[in-house]
Amino acid sequence: xxxxxxxxxxxxxxxxxxxxxxxxxxxxxxxxxxxxxxxxxxxxxxxxxxxxxxxxxxxxxxxxxxxxxxxxxxxxxxxxxxxxxxxxxxxxxxxxxxxxxxxxxxxxxxxxxxxxxxxxxxxxxxxxxxxxxxxxxxxxxxxxxxxxxxxxxxxxxxxxxxxxxxxxxxxxxxxxxxxxxxxxxxxxxxxxxxxxxxxxxxxxxxxxxxxxxxxxxxxxxxxxxxxxxxxxxxxxxxxxxxxxxxxxxxxxxxxxxxxxxxxxxxxxxxxxxxxxxxxxxxxxxxxxxxxxxxxxxxxxxxxxxxxxxxxxxxxxxxxxxxxxxx
Length: 326
Ligand SMILES: NC(=O)c1ccc[n+]([C@@H]2O[C@H](COP(=O)([O-])OP(=O)(O)OC[C@H]3O[C@@H](n4cnc5c(N)ncnc54)[C@H](O)[C@@H]3O)[C@@H](O)[C@H]2O)c1
What we know:
- By secondary structure, this protein is α/β, with parallel strands linked by helices.
- It has helices spanning 11-22, 56-67, 81-86, 88-109, 142-161, 189-198, 224-238, 257-268, 292-298, 306-319; strands at 2-6, 26-30, 46-47, 69-74, 113-119, 130-131, 164-170, 172-174, 204-206, 218-219, 221-223, 246-249, 255-256, 275-277, 286-289.
- Helix 1 (11-22) crosses helix 7, helix 4 runs parallel beside helix 5 (142-161) and helix 6 (189-198) crosses helix 8 (257-268).
C-alpha cells in the first residue's frame, strides 16, 4: 500500500515525502512542478501533470491503481493571496477543480483517506487573537475561500461515501527541516526579509502602530518540520475514530514582525534594520493558533521556537543559489 502525495515536490510536501521515505513507506508523488523541482524528492516516483486539468481524474485513477494507493495527502494548490484577488477564477479552477478531480478518482477507486492542506486564511480577520477551530470562518480573499470550500467538499464526501479526512489549518509556516528543502518562494516574512538582505536592501515592516507591545503584527510561526510531523500524526489518527475534522497547526505562541526581523539579524550577523512602511490591508494585529485540539486528539505539539526556525531558514538560504556573502 502506498501514500499518494499530491504537490509532494513543494516546500511543505517535500518535507512530508522525506519523513515518509525515511520511515520506509511506499510513496508516489503527483506534481506539475509549477512551483518546485523534481530533485526535492530524490528517487521517489513522480508522475508529472496538472491535477486540475481536463481529463486529470482518469490519470489520477491510473496512478492510484498502478501504485496500490490507500491514502492521499493533498498539498497542490495556488497560494498567492494577491494573485487570487486578481484572478479568482484561476484560483477556483485550480484549487477547487484539482480537489474535485482528486476526490472523484478516490471515490472511483475506493480510496477513503485524505489529509488536506488548509490554512489559517479560512479565519479571515478574526476578532479574537487566539483562534480555536470553532472560531468564525470568514475568509477575506479567494485563496482563503478555496481552502474553506475545500473543507466543505471533504465534509460532503464524508457524508456521501464515507471519506475519512483531516484538514490541517497551517499558521505561518517557516524554516527548513533539511537545508536543501528551504522555502524557495518569496512570499512569507522570513524569505521576504532574506530576499531584501540578499539584494542589499533594508527589510520592510508594514505598520508599527498596531495595538501590540512593539506596534508590529504578531503571528504564530510553525517550523515546517513540526508541520510535516503533524501530517504523520494525522495519518495515524485517521486509522482510529477522530472526534474532529479540522485542526489548527501552530505553536500557540506569537512573535512580532520586529522580533522576527531582529532574530534574522542576530542569526545571520547582518544589519537587518528595517524600514517602516504603511500598514497593508487585511493584516489583523494578532493571529495565533490555539494548539489544544490537535494536542488532545493526536497528541501532537509543535515544539520549535523562533530562533530555531530562523536558524534553519538561514542555513537553507545559504545553501541555495542566492547565498549572501558577508
Ligand atoms: N507555505 C505556507 O505558508 C502555507 C500556509 C497555509 C497553507 N498552505 C498550503 O499548503 C500547501 C502547500 O504549500 P507550499 O508552501 O508547500 O507550496 P508550494 O507551491 O511549494 O507547493 C505546492 C506544490 O504543488 C504543486 N502544484 C500546484 N498546483 C498543482 C496542480 N494543479 N497540479 C499538480 N501539482 C500542482 C506545485 O508544483 C508544488 O510542488 C498549499 O495547499 C498551500 O495553500 C501553505
